[in-house]
Amino acid sequence: MSANPHALLLDRGNLKRRNRFNRLVSGVSTIAAILAVAVLAIVVGSVFLKGVSALSWHFLTAPTALFGESGGGISNAIIGSAIIVGIAAVIAIPIGILVAIYTTEFAPASIAHPVRFVLDILNGVPTIITGIFVYGLIVVPQGHPSGFAASIALAIVMLPIVARTAQEVLTLVPSTLKEGAHALGIAPWRTTVRITIPTAAGGLLTGALLAVARVAGETAPILLLDFIFTQGVQTDPGQGLASIPYFIFQSSESPKPEAHTEAWAAALVLIAFVLALNVVARSFHARSRKRMGA
Amino acid sequence: MDARDSIESPAMTETNPDPQTSPQAGATAGPAISVATKSPAAGLRGRRDVGTVELQGLHAYYGSNHAVRGVDLGFAADQVTAIIGPSGCGKSTMVRCINRMHEEIDGARAEGHVLLDGLDLYDSRIDIVAVRRAVGMVFQKPNPFPTMSVFDNVVSGLRLSGASRSEMDDRGREALIGAGLWDEVKDRLKGPGVGLSGGQQQRLCIARALAVEPEVLLMDEPCSALDPVATLKIEELIGELKQRVTIVIVTHNMQQAARVADTTVFMLDGELVEVGPTDKLFTTPDDERTEQYVTGKFG
What we know:
The structure holds two protein chains of two kinds. By secondary structure, chain A is mainly α. Chain A is built from eleven helices and no strands. Helix content of chain A is 76%, strand content 0%. In chain A, helix 3 crosses helix 10 (244-253). Chain B is α/β, with parallel strands linked by helices. Helix content of chain B is 32%, strand content 21%. In chain B, helix 4 (150-159) crosses helix 5 (165-178), helix 4 (150-159) packs parallel to helix 7 and helix 7 runs parallel beside helix 8. Chain B is globular. The termini of chain B are far apart. The A-B interface holds A 174, 176-177, 179-187, 190-191, 194-195, 198-199, 201, 291-292, 294 and B 99, 101, 104, 129-133, 136-137, 139, 141, 143, 145-147, 156-157, 160-161, 194, 205, 208-209, 212.
């Protein structure tokens, strides 16, 4: 029989080996993915198991006990964290979104690229350095630590996160929409405010929420800038405020095992908050993507 | 039928955009279709000596790429003019110069004059944003605003340039009727604009452009993303609309040009090759290149 014209289609003897290799690589990647998911599951699971026994309504609503005693709660820490993160958000989110609008809608490429680069670098600055910087900027002149100083440091950490996610979402808005608006005689700034931003609104919200989730537990700035505060529930950011990361840090250093459990419980509260924010943020993101793909 | 009665003025007769009852579509100039006419008392919009466009020595560039090379061309006020030519010949570019959208692209520029009723739109004193209200545009892919309802989409051009509530309501409704969409959407004006079918979305975009009451309507391959049924509806619509607006339609579909246009322009490599009555251009063109294109020798 003459040479088969389709000889190239036939197995040259290494098909089995190639298939085995394929399966090996697939298997290894699957294991890696499982490991990654497992890590989160283990962290959340162990925090839950170690802390749930100290979790109670009293724990959430009573302020920390005096003089490092256990048996108190974290209400002042929750309120303090809320105020600190809230102020940081009010500062960072509008500025971050405006920066993103500037770089995507109005700036020429020669300015937009360097700005993005700088934001990426800012994103990578270790938070302890940001903390030291704000220490010199605010705590030294003020003479005492305060919740506000911590807010400034957290705002600096949040800014590049908000700006980058906002940039990505704004670039996703189809240029056909902006073109259509311009062709109707709608001025460019109005197009941005009434069409581009509302279309990207879900994604902008996502970026903001993710940034909040990220800094809710940032500890280095807190340790440097907000480490002295009076007992009981305080709400003045000009003075020191209790915070959840500080409570975890302090309780974990206590010699008493009950304090350790309380630290785990506070950690559980924190991680539950971060998880909830992430889930909510992702759902907004999904809605926004659907709108722009429609 | 009854929705339209409520907004008819004594001097106005409305077209019936319903394809089942209107005369057979496909007529080029459409004298058999009853068309909307406005009494002279309705103002400038009723007179059809407005909406003439004239291109004088128009050149357009993308960076160093000379896409439109010295075009001199006039568009008559009560006609549909089709621009045909192979891909990349500069027809879309030329049309985008009319409403000054070409220069929005990074690195793009245009030279020459575009006269709208004698007024040069490229004069340095002209408000570029206002140009787009006099010269409207409909794009190849329908682009309704996803965050707005059907009705808000239609009046978006009005609302975002400051118009009163009642004025918006009236003009929005008229525009939807004029675009042949009122009957289909009157019960879901508050529904999302993107919830309509492709053909309805494109008619929505046409209504949106009409609401601003431009003198000229540019259509850049408006049917190429639509199915044949939707295409037919829009071609009928074009026949009705030409009494209200001067229409310039870019199309790569020669049969469509033959169906809807009074005048056809053939472009090749950025140059205007031939312009003439549609029938003549397709049957006895003057230029040899035109003849080769319309007989399909190249595409």
